[in-house]
Amino acid sequence: ELKVEQNPLFLSMQEGKNYTIYCNYSTTSDRLYWYRQDPGKSLESLFVLLSNGAVKQEGRLMASLDTKARLSTLHITAAVHDLSATYFCAVEGTSGSRLTFGEGTQLTVNP
Amino acid sequence: SAVISQKPSRDICQRGTSLTIQCQVDSQVTMMFWYRQQPGQSLTLIATANQGSEATYESGFVIDKFPISRPNLTFSTLTVSNMSPEDSSIYLCSVKGRTANTEAFFGQGTRLTVV
Question: What mean pLDDT is predicted for residues A76-83?
Answer without folding.
Answer: 96
